[in-house]
Amino acid sequence: MAVTSIDGLESIFPKNRLLRDAAFRAAFESDGLTAFRTKPLAVVIPESAEEVIAAVRWCHDKQVPFVARGSGTSLSGGSMPVAGGIVIALNRLNKILSLDPDDRIAVVEPGVVNQRVSDAAAPHGLYYAPDPSSQSICTIGGNVAFNSGGAHCLKYGMTSNHVIGCRAVLATGEVVTMGGPSVETVGPDFTALFCGSEGLFGVALEITLRLLPKPEQFHTVLVGYRSLQEAGDAVSAVIDSGLLPGALEIMDALSIEAAEAAVACGYPPGAAAVLIVELEGPREKIEYEREQLDRVLADTGFFAQRVAVDEADRLSIWKGRKSAFSAVGRLSPDFLVQDGVVPRKRLGEALVRIEQLSRDAGIRVANVFHAGDGNLHPLIMFDGKEEGALHRAEALAAQLLQLCIEMGGSITGEHGVGMEKRDFLPAMFDEPSMAMMDRIRRAMDPRLIANPGKMFPGKEAPSLGFSGLHPLEQAGVISRE
Hints:
Number of strands: 19
CATH topology of the largest domain: Alpha-Beta Plaits
Radius of gyration: 22 Å
Distance between the termini: 28 Å
CATH class of the largest domain: Alpha Beta
Shape: globular
Number of domains: 4
CATH architecture of the largest domain: 2-Layer Sandwich
Largest sheet: 8 strands, antiparallel
Number of helices: 16
């Protein structure tokens, strides 16, 4: 029988931080994947780690599902509530507990916004490398849950490469400490295991981050191409040359149009695609590498080039890229953001295939890519008020992910599996691998109360609300007995 009472929570949280009002719960009913919504039983707003622990232990005792949530920027339904469950909102756990410039580490609470870490480290000549597009609002706890990346993950890696320690409460109520203040560890790396677990293990309470020295110099180049194929092939040319840029990003014509309308970023008119290449490091090294980059790009067939002349110009180039997701809202009332990976060598081929799938479906797709590591972010446009439009958009999204699998890639680069892509897991992993992942999850959460219905297909997964043939079945990804 589903629990409808919150008896016991009143002793942990005052009334103004234990909320069941329908209007307030509606604010938490979805994350960045707004197509799917569920109202939680209640929302609790802890102000300390002790309150988070108490809430998790209450859920464990009552067998009530819970979802930990920061800013709700997940784009895969990963932080969507569970019917009959509670949301543990972590936004008030937003303290930077310590920052050691000598050891280059910071210890933060999960509700700290990503950008605040770099802002706090800046006076010491340091910064926090992972930089998702939503870094001005997304929280470190969410970054850990989904192992977020960003534009500079090609050179610096994902969140898991920068989280060296974590104190967390597991779904059983047990409080554990993983890793510590040193990048050198002995034994299994449980911190890396926790990163990317999508909230299925428990809730992070304190997170130890590795900080890096700010690069001495940047060299940022914006290059315009007449076709997506040329832009994709240019990425391979840059990497094949031996260069390792800090970032390699592609935007297509539709995303350029949206970014121009939103922030007037000054990208070349008439470009089918732009490539952003950013070199960073010691001044002498950058002087040498920029000459090498010029030689490589000269053979890629670009028709326009813009080199940032100062920091303001550099930030203007990046402003267009960082605004792309939200800016597409100017072109379409609704859109789905997909997140798949293809081998870098096949990026140009993948872009051509995406264009063809878009034309065949009669659905516009704006493309933004972390091109250096083959991470695709197609933005599939639709009008949710039009009957069947969401279903058709999901069907196209399924085809795009199937394309990634066929090319030897992955169904996710940084957005996670969440609800949206859970049925793709069996297409990527064999049964023994799936069984192993399930055993690890159940070891951390035997009662399956931590963010149930996410990542794994099966009985615990609630329906996404489709009637008739699911888009994944239409794409030939899954079959049902």
